[in-house]
What we know:
Oligomer: single chain
CATH superfamily: TolB, C-terminal domain
Structural class: mainly beta
CATH topology: Neuraminidase
Order of helices and strands: HEEEEEHEEEEEEEEEEEEEEEEEEEE
Amino acid sequence: xxxxxxxALFASTALATAALAQSSSTAPATPAPPVFQQAPYLPDxxxxxxxxxxxxxxxxxxxxxxxxPEQTRAPYHKTHPYKLTEITSKLYAPWGLAFLPxxxxxxxxxxxxxxxxxxxxxxxxxxxxxxxxxxxxWPETGLFDLVLDPDFRTNHRxxxxxxxxxxxxxxxxxxxxxxxxxxGNALRDVTTIWRSIPSTPNDAHxxxxxxxxxxxxxxxxxxxLYVILGDRDAGTSTPWRVAQTLDTDLGKVVRLTRDGKxxxxxxxxxxxxxxxxxxxxxxxxxxxxxxxxxxxxxETEHGPRGGDELNLIKKGANYGWPIISHGVDYxxxxxxxxEVAKAGMEQPVYYWAPSLGPSGLAYYDANLFPEWKGSILAxxxxxxxxxxxxIRNDKVVxxxxxxxxxxxxxxxVRVGPDGAVYVLTDSGGGSITxxxxxxxxxxxxxxx
Length: 448
């Protein structure tokens, strides 16, 4: 241990011990006010009442306060019933999907990393060959998200995020480009175009692959690639603050050209010590990522215990982690200084407390479900639901849990070219093992 640190620790401990002895000899100690109250693990969807909040559990952070009335616990509003069609129930740990022009789906499976093509009738291809070109040899490649090139119909190109292992530790998020050879069930011209910094952000304090991020989205107006990266902390009451520093991609949104270069106009280009690819900072464990019809970028992320967020991502903005949070640490103490707001840091548009574990994200702007138009669809892992949030003037005015009858973790959600909603479920639980069942589903929602 550093000698100066050891002396400081000894001095502070001695002072604390002396103060405790003095207080105990003069008066009984006053217990600290509680900051945490246990809530049931799962929400209760069995007694939803029109116009009343969906969430009825107590907020586990007893000192939490929303910044405005619509920021949390929106009222329930039931819309038109839907028909649920199961396309397949035989996927293994899927993570993301894209719609191919011929009506099929290109799906990623996280570990071991595979691309598969799923037909509309549920037929699943063998794993596509070609990932070996990434040069990952030990022990395997992991896949996250994917997005098609705007000219995919002619160039068959797409982009995806992946991670590799370095001596047993999961490495950073990388972005690769590939060309789909559907007839050959293969990937061609597979190339890594961007590698995050640091390349292996794991040590004894940061866990193995937790809070990775990995979603990728294509800017509808500028054509650039946007990627979210988690802070990779293992989770303590005093989290490391890499999301607030500009010399690492951890806890950031980055913006890249389709060649993997920092995109022109990024807010920190030219700032000494800053990585030029950074677009926004202060993220924790980002899971959902989508653009709305106006070209604005929305994101969901996991809070600690409570405080799961829906954010509207702005150029150069700071989303506060770990300085501010509406949640508490897993054992119950406050995070950091316990602040929920601070000048210069963005508030979430909406947050869930207790946690639902938001995952994939989509904006509904199609006509197949007229009542859903203008809604955000957020999958949840812990909540085992698809949350439909009606957005008006950038506020959530009502909430409707969907797919609660499926009773599975929702990993991804996309709106198809036909206006239907497509959902990937996750049978893997919190981690993927050899015992993870090959039972994840691709579901389709259409009006009843």
